[in-house]
Amino acid sequence: LGPAVRQMDPQEQEAMAVTRPMIRPALKAASAGLHTAWRQALKDFHVLDPAAILHGSYATGLHCADSDVDVLTSVPLEEVLCQLQSSPSPTRFAVLEHVRWAKIPRLILEHHATGIHVDAISNSAVSGAAERDEVVAKFLAIDPRVRQLALLIGDWARIHAQAMPVPKGFPNVFTLRLTGFHLLMTLSGSPSLLPPLTEHGVELSGDVQPDDVVASAAEMFEEWLSRLATSDQHGFCVNLRRPWEKCETGWHVIDPISSRNLTPFRGEQPRVIAALARESLG
Predict the structure, then answer these.
(1) Which of 120, 162, 206, 244 meets the CB 3.0–4.6 Å disulfide criterion with 107?
(2) pTM (2 decimals)?
(3) What residues are paired with 111 via a beta bridge?
(4) Longest dimension (CA), the chain
(5) Residue 157 contacts residue 164 (beta carbons within 8 Å)
(6) How far apart are the C-alpha atoms of 27 and 62, rounded to whole Å?
(7) Alpha carbons 22 and 20: distance in angstroms, whole number
(8) Residue 174: count of CB within 10 angstroms of its CB
């Protein structure tokens, strides 16, 4: 992972080294067959809901060996459950959990044939999910370093998940990755690797020349950590439609679809995030 990771303390280095290869013990599909396995799980889910939409890491290209297959259902989750329970043929899935009372209810299934987990939420419960996936996929298609940086940010977030619990107001991986995409629009001393989004919709505004950007993903990750390390000292403004905007104080990471501030922190979140970034830089 380059110089930025070698500067981490030994515990962080060990965690980073094992994060990606870890595979859920129940996962029966070997990594070599993963491309076929997740497609089979999605195909079998379409028997329950033919109009379900692939969502999340498999839709964007950010999946790892142990990623769940996320889907957006076209029907209520209760209807999916009824389909499972009333199916005359041997069931293709086991119900692991039905989280009914969460802000966004979800149904977690295990695909019998592959061991892959399918995490289903109703499309009506989360506005703009497919559009967010489309934005991420468009960014990843521009240059391989975009995906590499996004994966490094995801690894860093998982390593520090205990210190940055999302239920206590800390940003989730998607929000942190938005800050990484913003970095690629505003690289220090370098042309941009990503163009901004247009004022509306999910189209990109203008062109970039990736070959003109010489920095590696590891170097970009180090710059990302450096920005986080000082984000508690001044405004941290991230708007992928207007990447040049500045903020006086506080975090303002704007959701590109809803235009909502995803980081309305009211506690110690900026200080904690900045301290963790400084520790990672060494």
Answers:
(1) 120
(2) 0.84
(3) 93
(4) 63
(5) yes
(6) 18
(7) 6
(8) 19
Alpha-carbon distance of 197 to 194, in angstroms, equals 9
Residue 90 in this model has a pLDDT that exceeds 90: no
Nearest CA among 225, 233, 237 for reference residue 263: 237
Mean pLDDT value of segment 180-185? 98
- Residue 260: CB atoms within 10 A of its CB come to 10
Residue 87: its pLDDT value, please? Answer: 74
Q: Cα–Cα distance between 205 and 189 in angstroms, integer?
A: 21
Amino acid sitting at position 43: K
Which among 243, 226, 236, 282 is positioned nearest to 263, based on CA atoms? 236
Strands laid side by side in the 93-99 sheet: 53-55, 69-73, 117-122, 106-111, 93-99
- Token pair, residue 85, equals 């329970």
DSSP E strands in the chain: the ranges are 53-55, 69-73, 93-99, 106-111, 117-122, 236-238, 251-253
pLDDT score, position 190? 85
Q: Considering only CA atoms, which of 71, 199, 56 is closest in space to residue 132?
A: 56
**Cα–Cα distance for residue pair 204/212, rounded to 1 Å:** 19
pLDDT in tens, 59-68: 999 998 888 9
